[in-house]
Structures are given as C-alpha cells and as structure tokens.
Design a protein that fits this description.
single chain, alpha/beta, six-stranded mixed β-sheet, 9% strand, binds adenosine-5'-diphosphate
C-alpha cells in the first residue's frame, strides 16, 4: 500500500464490503427475515391500506370517464332543449367521487404514516438494544461513525421507502393497469396505437435503471463517508487539535463532501434526462392520439367524450412511469440499508450469555470472591498475547499488576471482566467459570473501573448512582463521604446537583477519580478491577485518591493495574507481567528482596522519580 495510490482516508474509510452491490442482489434471507419481522405486527393495517389504495385509484380513474359521460350524455339533451338533468347528475357524481377520494387519501396517509413510524421506532429500538449488547470487541472494530450511519442514513432509507415509496409504487402499478384497461375499453384500436410507444418507454427505463444502480449506490456510499468522517473527526477532536490535524481533516472532509455532491449531481443529471424524456414520449403520444382520434371521431367510430377521456388517460399513463423509476432508487437504497442493518443485527455478542447459568456458591462474596486464572491463554487475533497464566487470588486480596507497556496487564484485566473469553483455559470466580455466570451476576460481582472513568451528562449524584440505579440520596452521600469526597462535592456550585457538563461543574482529574470510585463503592462488587489513571495528580488529590482507594478495596478482591508506587505499596501482592507471562509473584516487600528482579528495578525507578 503506497501513499500515492491509496491516499490515507483517515478514520473515515469504510470497508468496501459494507453493502451489497445493488440491483441483482435479491433480498438475502437475513434481510427478508428482518423485513418480515418488522412488518408482521402490521398485517391488518396493510390489508386496510391496500383496500384504501385500490378504492382511491378507482376513484381517481373515474374522473375522465365521468367527463366522457358529461360530454356524450350531457350535451344532446341540452341541444334538444331538454333540462340539464343528466349533466347535473354527472357533475354531482363527479363531486361526490372527489370528496370520497380526498377522504380515502386522508385515511391512507394517516394509517400508513402511523405504521411507518411504528416500524421505524421498532427498528431503532432493536438497533440501539443490539448495539448496547454487542461486546467491546465489536465496538473496537465497528466505529462510532458507522454506528451513526446505520442509525441515521440507513434507517432514513427505509423510512423513505415506507413513507413515499410504497404509496407511489402501489399507486403507479394500479394506475398503469387501470388506465390500460380503461383505454382498451374506450377504444381498442386507439389503445393499440398507443401501445406502439411502450417499447420506447421500456428501453428508456432500462437504460435509466442500469445507470441509476451505479449512480445511486455512489451517493449512498458517499453520504456514509461524510457521516463517518464527520463523527469520527469530531469525536477525536482533542487529538485532532493537539496534533494540528485540522487542515488535513478539512482536506479529507472537503474530498468526501465533494464526492457526495458530485454523486448527487450525477444522479440529478440522470433524472433530468429520464424525467423529461418520458414526459416527451407522453406528450408525443397525446399528439398521436389526437391525430388518430379526431379522424375516428369524424368517421363516427368514437365519440368526442371518449376522445377527451382517452387524452386525459394517456397523459396520466406516463406520470406513474416516472414515479416507478424513482421508486426503484428508493427500493434499492432500502435494500442496501436492510442488508447492512440485518448484518449488524446478526452480529452475535463476542461473549455469549450462558444458556444454563450457574449461580455463585451461597454465602460467598462477603469478603470478595476467589479468582482463579487456570492455564489461561489469549490473543486478539492470531498472535497470542497471554501465554498460560496460572494465578489464584484468594478472596479479599488486593493484587497489583505491574510490568512494561504491552505486557498484557490490561488484557488480563479484560478477561477478568469477561470483555473477552480466553482462547484456552478458564477464568473462575469462586470455582464458577465466568462463561457459566449469568450476565447480571457477572456485572454485579465484577466491576471494572477504567482510566477514563467515564462521566455521563447529568449531575454528580446521577453519576455516582450509575453504580446502583435507584440508590437514595443518602446512600449516594454515604458512598461519597466514606471515600472522603463529600466535602469536595459539597463545595461544587450546586453540591450533588451540580451538572458536570455545565460551567463550574467541570471536575478535575482527581475529582473524576473520586466520583468513579464512589460509583464503584455504591455498586459494591465482590471483585474490583481497576485500571489506575496514569495521569499524575497533584499531591493533595493524590493523597485523597489513595485514601479513597484504601476504603474502596477493603473487604473485596481487587486487581489493579498499578502506575503509582503508593498504590503498589497498599497491595497485598504484586504480579509482574512481562510478555504475557507472570514472571514475579509475591508481596511488595518480598519482591523487593529479589536481586536482579523486575519489581526491584521498577521500584527503584519510581523512587528516583519522586526525588
Ligand atoms: P498492557 O496493559 O500491559 O500495556 P495490553 O494488555 O494492553 O498491555 O496489551 C498486550 C498486547 O495486546 C499488546 O501487544 C497490544 O498490542 C495487544 N492488544 C491490546 N489490546 C488489543 C486489542 N483491542 N486488539 C488487538 N490487540 C490488542
């Protein structure tokens, strides 16, 4: 891959295999299944709308026929000096049909609108639910931009199909069939003449469809790129600004944005040829009908009214043909979207919930759980990262993991939180394989606090209560005070009700740590996995955090990826991990005595850095 032939597209690059190639791809079975399950609850509404559409089309097509009656049957009585009864009757029926038609249109729009929204609500719900369930490994692979593209442009494509697409296709097909029948009934000979232009329309549609497949696919791909680039560049705005990537990102954005516009222009040009093309054929047909029809009227083969109705029908015959080609695009976009959505919905969580969960032994966990890594091997891809870990951690012990970057400490922590399953061996909690634990039990008993200690929009209290939804204000306060964070939170502009996204509510690194600890304390898990923040804190905060940590770790099993000397010193035991193996194991004091040991060297380096 060289820079000149394959310019770096930034994080926006989507895999080419993200969708099907369009036209020929019939709905794959998983798309069909998704569609069927989305539509199934609305069967009755579909029957109702179909009946309404058929009735509406009949009402619409009655217009020209009533016109014919008005002319052919209305004029003779008047010229004969009789009353306008016939004319008035026809006009009355015409108006009545008009009213019925408006009502039918109203019913159709209301019912189909409701069904459409129900389906979209259902689809978005399923997607959100599913994205939440999918494991960390999925989200590492499937970027946030793509998630958003799924939730926006793909759902939108289906919305458009349900909204305007289905109406235009049903109307279109019914109109073409209905009008053709009407033409033949009115004058088979003239209808035959009209049929002569059909091959021309057919050829044009084919030409259009072939091009449209390519062009509309380009627009869909381009809009996905715009969304993905937009979301991901802004999602990483800190890094972008820190590394002055703005000009380059702008360049990439201008490129994808330009490509989107260009693709749209191509689609536009195509439609600009096709639409007027079909219209011209329509107008030419009107001329042909006039030419032939007038002669037939003169020769007495056709009435004036029939000719007038015929002309109106022919004009209307070509309108839905344009709609049909538009529908084709909507349909294609929706098929591609369905394909991507059903693909995502088909993704299985990397770590599956057990079919027959095993409960943890009764009475266990009051002092934390016993953790056992039993001959654990693991790799993210082909390369193995952990090469056989055998560690037993008794309940209540605090274990510090230390070692060089990339040694596998975080990986070990992730296996304990069951964000991945080992490729070989087992991770056990009080003798129960994590794979056999129900998700709810696992998430309650093993809580991971990561470096980011993510805070959500909302108040400080909300963020602490995140650890145990439904916790009372007193419980939240208690958790904070036990960890020594109470005074500090009270000092914020609105105390516990301070919105952390608002001015004055912004928390320092140390404060964020404390809130994260309070959250974990409230959750009260038997096992705590902690990736200690690497960013250094000022001394008072550091002291506060260390004290809080001490409280948090009491009476539970803890595994800490330690970056500070002070943390390692409060641990009961240190595991030194190097290259995916545990190379030293013992109390901090014992390990200090190992001459030439890793821990001893690390300890010395830490001490030196403090001087
Ligand atoms: P540590 O926490 O000790 O710094 P990690 O457990 O993060 O080490 O990483 C161990 C190895 O696994 C490294 O070689 C790293 O490149 C690799 N690794 C870590 N996370 C991932 C991931 N999500 N996908 C692929 N490889 C990963």
């Amino acid at each position: 891959m060289s820079a000149s032939t394959d310019p770096w597209r930034g994080v926006a690059a989507e895999e080419a295999a993200d969708g099907p190639s369009g036209l020929t791809s019939l709905l794959r079975s998983r798309s069909r299944a998704l569609l069927a399950s989305l539509l199934a609850p609305h069967r009755r509404a579909f029957v109702l709308t179909t009946v309404v559409v058929v009735a509406e089309t009949a009402a619409r097509l009655a217009g020209p026929y009533l016109l014919k009656l008005g002319i052919d049957r209305g004029i003779p009585p008047l010229t004969a000096g009789e009353g306008p009864d016939v004319l008035l009757t026809v006009v009355g029926v015409f108006l009545a049909v008009l009213v019925v038609r408006s009502l039918l249109e109203y019913v159709f729009l209301v019912v189909s609108g409701r069904v459409g929204q129900d389906i979209l609500v259902d689809l978005r719900r399923r997607l959100f639910d599913h994205f939440q369930r999918l494991g960390i490994s999925f989200h590492e692979r499937y970027t946030s931009g793509r998630v958003i593209a799924r939730l926006t442009s793909d759902v939108e494509a289906i919305a458009e199909l349900l909204g305007s697409g289905l109406l235009s296709i049903t109307n279109g097909v019914l109109s073409i069939v209905g009008i053709s029948v009407a033409l033949v009934l009115l004058d088979p000979f003239l209808a035959g003449a009209c049929l002569l232009v059909l091959p021309l329309v057919w050829a044009m549609s084919n030409w259009f469809r072939r091009r449209a497949v390519v062009v509309y696919r380009q627009t869909r791909d381009a809009v996905a790129l715009v969304i993905v680039h937009f979301v991901e560049s802004l999602g990483g705005i800190r890094a972008v600004q820190a590394f002055r990537r703005e000009p380059r990102n702008q360049e990439i954005f201008d490129d994808v944005n330009g490509r989107y516009a260009a693709a749209n222009l191509r689609a536009n040009r195509l439609a600009a040829i096709f639409g007027p093309g079909v219209s011209s054929i329509g107008r030419a047909s009107v001329a042909l009908v006039l030419l032939v029809g007038v002669r037939r009227v003169v020769s007495g083969d056709m009435t004036v009214g029939a000719l007038a109705a015929f002309l109106l029908y022919v004009r209307r015959l070509f309108e839905p043909m344009q709609d049909l080609s538009q529908f084709y695009n909507l349909f294609q976009a929706a098929v591609a979207a369905l394909e991507k959505l059903s693909g995502v919905l088909d993704e299985k969580p990397g770590v599956a919930e057990p079919e027959h969960p095993v409960a943890l032994p009764d009475g266990a966990g009051r002092q934390g759980h016993q953790v056992l890594f039993d001959a654990v091997r693991f790799g993210y891809g082909d390369a193995e990262v952990l090469h056989g870990i055998d560690v037993e951690i008794p309940a209540g012990q605090t274990v510090a993991l230390v070692g060089p970057t990339g040694a596998g400490k975080s990986t070990l922590a992730r296996l304990l939180g069951r964000f991945h399953d080992p490729t070989e061996g087992r991770v056990l909690l009080d003798g129960v394989d994590l794979r056999d634990l129900a998700d709810d039990d696992l998430r309650r008993e093993v809580v991971t606090v990561t470096q980011e200690s993510f805070l959500f929009a909302g108040t400080v209290a909300d963020n602490i209560a995140f650890g145990r939804p439904g916790a009372s204000r007193d419980e939240i306060r208690e958790a904070a005070s036990v960890l020594g964070a109470h005074e500090l939170i009270e000092a914020l502009p609105s105390g516990y009700d301070t919105d952390i996204r608002k001015r004055g509510g912004r928390l320092s690194a140390g404060q964020r740590q404390l809130v994260a600890f309070a959250r974990a304390f409230l959750a009260d898990p038997g096992v705590l996995v902690l990736d200690e923040a690497t960013s250094s804190l000022d001394l008072p905060s550091e002291r506060l955090v260390q004290r809080a940590l001490h409280t948090l770790l009491a009476e539970r099993t803890a595994v800490i990826i330690a970056h500070r000397l002070s943390t390692v010193e409060i641990a009961d035991r240190v595991l030194v991990v190097v290259d995916g193996r545990v190379v030293e194991d013992g109390s901090p004091r014992d390990l200090l005595g190992v001459t030439g040991g890793h821990y001893r060297a690390l300890h010395r380096a830490w001490e030196d850095s403090l001087v």
